[in-house]
Amino acid sequence: MKYKESKIILEQNFEVASKFLDNLESTERIQKGFNTGTSTNLHYYLNNWFLFRVEFFGHDAIKIDYRNRKIPNKISKSLDFFAVLKKLVANSNPQNHHNFYQEIIVINNSNKEYLELLDEATEVYYKQTDFTDLANNIVQQNRPSISNIKSKQSVEQSRQNRIQAKNSNIRNASGINEGYYKINREERNLCAILFHTLLLDDNLNLFLKKIGCDFPIIDSEIGIYLEYAFIRDIWENIRNKFGITEGNKIKRKIILDNLNLSNTEKLEAMSVFDFNNFFVRSITRNPSSKEIESPGNWSIEKYDTNIQDNDEFLTACKFKWSFNAKPDIVINTSNDHAICIEGKFKSGEGSYPTNKNEKSIFHRRGIPFVGQLSIQVVIMNLLGIDSKFVLLANSRITSNTHDFYTWKEVFNELETSNCPTFIKEWLNRSDIK
């Protein structure tokens, strides 16, 4: 196909789509995603031939660039929004359907309205245009040499393979095609649903009433947090507020005051490196020589050799774990009062330590493992926050620190009519007890 002939044919068939986009009001174009200064190139291929490119320049112009040329040994990925020629050839005479660009297209555009606009333009284009002659002309006149053409059987086999792949995905193969919220077992997702629900209507007050909490509520200080990592974030901000040198003094004092080790005076006199080296072991790096490291980086195997007393050793472990543990939900009714919530769904209470080598150390020392819930108490005590502890689960888990409630009895007290449908369906499941 000569350049002039291809230009005429393609212009005729793209006139509808081009006018559809060109006629949009400027404000609507911007809202739909045609932002000034952006350019989107839509490439179209037949076999190994590059047929043409459509360029969207901001919201001001659409340019069609006709440059028929061979792309040797290369199948290019393209942003194939209209997929015009692909559908033309696919819907035309099957005998003329030779090795058309088959690779699945990946659309890398997160602007949903932009994609919807292109879909709308495509719909108008297909309704108003007759493709038969164009399809036959393009295929016949741009056909490569016979050695590069797949047989009809090969094309049909490729089609069948794609159909089989679609039908054999895990959802179809398992017969479970319903929404994920119907079977989701992730307790953090359930905690997120509770978090969302507490923000609606008067649900926070209803929840506090349900659990019998009479903490003062200060509107300017109230906050609800998922994955509560207050201690860890305080540690990070010590450096930001005071700098490294002064921050090191504050961090060292926090550690030594809370551990109350028998060799405190020796640790006070150590260099930053030696202090870190007392607690930290890493196979990938040396302890820092500039900054007191977070206790979350400590190695139980390292200070096991440096702290002989079991009580002091266990205190150090609980202190370390407090920097890594994150309660599921914490409600601060004020800066000094909080409800600390742990959510369980299919699992039970975890325990520390979790590492095989660390467990062997506890066995050797004759120290029992430490329950996950008790570490939450340590965390809130270290923060100096007066706290009430709540455990939500499907079945009762015995705890000396947490008040137990089932998910169902809590959500029954809350107003959920304004929640999205998937949340309502989640909460109506038979396994939410």
Oligomer: single chain
Which outline best applies?
globular
What Rg, in angstroms, do the CA atoms define?
A: 32 Å
**What is the helix fraction of residues, given as a range?**
40-55%
Number of strands: 10
Mean pLDDT: 75
Provide the β-strand percentage band. Answer: 5-15%
Q: How does this structure look, described?
A:
With 433 residues, the chain is α+β, with helices and mostly antiparallel strands. The protein has 2 domains: 3-144; 187-427, no CATH class. The chain has 18 helices and 10 strands. It has helices at residues 3-22, 26-32, 84-90, 112-128, 132-141, 152-167, 170-174, 187-198, 203-210, 230-259, 264-269, 272-279, 300-304, 310-324, 356-365, 372-383, 407-411, 421-427, and strands at 39-46, 49-57, 61-70, 223-226, 329-334, 337-343, 351-352, 370-371, 386-393, 403-406. Strands 4-5-6-9-10 form a 5-stranded mixed β-sheet. Strand 2 and strand 3 (61-70) form a beta hairpin. Helix 1 packs across helix 4 (112-128), helix 10 packs antiparallel against helix 14 (310-324) and helix 14 (310-324) crosses helix 16 (372-383). The radius of gyration is 32 Å and the shape is globular. It starts with a helix and ends in a 6-residue tail after the last helix. The model is unreliable at 1-11, 13-18, 24-30, 32-115 and 128-150 (pLDDT under 50).
